[in-house]
């Protein structure tokens, strides 16, 4: 009984077909995918949002998710950040020779569940298997498309002085959860990754107000990096208050222990919205009704002076600059 | 010098302990604080307890700071 | 978080700030020696809250920043010996040596692993009996005892493949050298809190006694720093110079006897090279003869590349508090956190990095 993925599984022959048909197509249950044509053919009209991403997270499985769920949610969220309704994803696996079939099945099932929650179809895919050592167990690449409704115009360059900055919930959950699983930093926690599809949340926000200026999901680099990107793109300054930013106690504790700043830790189920002042309360209300926005809070505002700069009022009342993340987040001793 | 945080000792086995801070737990070494007991707070640096935190002194410092704050309000 | 959150209460900070403003009449320059204090001061914007009479400068208390190129080159050379696994604290990975860095050596195929604790390094040694695990011993008196324990544990468990490259340094000698140089006039010193948890407050007595500089041993939360500044101001205005402990919950005058005993069991003092300050006698630690078999300098034939100092880098001056990052021609231009020229920009608690990332103070 062979329980491992072999090079032959990626070579296009019988074993490969078996893997795709019995493993992927069956689990993902999508009529377009099941056709197994070289490309999926769909009808569209309107503005298309199109994104691509690759997922290389290690470890593959972590509390609250896995690389598969991450792949679906990450792609869906990129589309949602343009205001699009996510529709279809492509899915490409690069599998390391020797990867356990049972683990691959676990990932595929997770992908199916996430796709179902997000309301997207996985309609085309690809599988390659590489020599042992050429990939770290499993890499996933995706592309996604969605339709942007009429009248919606969301872009990182749309922020204006006077706008409010809204954060959808606690920061740092995903990054700290993944780090806690790394052997050399071992600590135990009940934390879970916040990995989640935000298409529904965004749709409800747009219902409350079609005038949302910017949306961004603060993944790698954390909230600080996303805010800096928005400030630079829109040529505005952003002022936030440390007191208002929600952080779970365990995330704070882990950050204290390792010397991290939660502002720079990755999130996979949160968003930042920049909204005209007059619409802020409406949007906030709508967010709090959604399970992925129940802790939403206004954390700051947009200003015109010192464009490109992000400034935070600390709990003591003094201000400091919040820059982008540089390089990698590394634990420190000092 | 150096990053160290107060953690609560939950259990001890040989010269190591399970210590907890803010809901996260980690195994730490008590080689430098052999007299530490369950229920003590220790200051943890790179996985080692470097000192037992004096809880009474902590409370006294906070009282002092509270007094200073009240003084400031009265004068202000 | 118990014993952390309480020391961040803004209403208590306000009380201290009011008192400092009321008391401080004499213009003074206070130095915070310790990198951890530098980070707190920048992160909370403490400079902005203090009166104009108080100038804060940062000293050479970041063990990463003061590691000389020659020493870093040794670590990189070790990383390139086949069969060697380097275990190091995260801070060291990006620091540039003369030609390279540990991170670059790793990208080039060297086995360099980041650990949070020497406990993890010992485990790597146990799990990889065919490799030699070399732990980079960086840090001051807070960290040195933990490395001493790792060596004693390696001996107890008969672990034959664990080595330490001791780049440890001691604080009192470098502060003495700084004061002797007379380059920076100081009116007060904020003494390192966790170094003092180990060595106590007595080793700082010479500063107050022989140099008439008031000293306060401080914790790392914003209230701790503010309280320490308040106590220094108090001493200055009353014309006193003593060593006081503000961080009473963490430090007692005699220090941690057990930690000192273990540190002295394994290590002995020797001269050390400090970036920007040159050689300082008795300011480093070396493994004693009894533990020589754990000493990487004896076990390996280390061939570092020739030492070069980067042109234009004034990290040395910044570490001594003589210049600020704003005085450096490279700061923010050729030397940035993405492309650091010197260690003050790499280490997250180096003056340049803190200044660049948190702004304020040096704007």
Jot down its keywords.
heterotrimer; A: alpha+beta; 60s Ribosomal Protein L30, Chain: A; Phosphoribosyl-aminoimidazole Synthetase, Chain A, domain 2; 2 domains; four-stranded mixed beta sheet; globular; C: 363 residues; Rossmann fold; four-stranded parallel beta sheet
Beta-strand content estimate of chain C: 15-25%
What does the overall shape of chain A look like? globular
Output the radius of gyration of chain A. 21 Å
Record the strand order, biggest sheet of chain A. Answer: 8-10-7-11-9-12-13
Strand arrangement across the biggest beta sheet of chain C = 2-1-7-8-9
Count of separate structural domains of chain C: 2
Distance from first to last alpha carbon of chain C: 33 Å
- Order of H and E elements of chain A: HHEEEHEHEEEHHEHEHEHEEE
Amount of helix of chain A: 25-40%
What letter string, H or E per element, gives the SSE order of chain C? HEHHEHEHEHEHEHEHHEHEHEEHHHH
CATH homology-level superfamily of the largest domain in chain A? PurM-like C-terminal domain
Between the first and last Cα atoms of chain A, what is the distance in angstroms? 52 Å
Instruction: Give the helix tally of chain C.
Output: 16
Overall body shape of chain C: globular
CATH class of the largest domain in chain C: Alpha Beta
Unreliable spans of chain A = none
Q: Helical content of chain C, roughly?
A: 25-40%
Overall pLDDT score of chain C: 92
Q: Based on the coordinates given, report the CATH architecture of the largest domain in chain A.
A: Alpha-Beta Complex
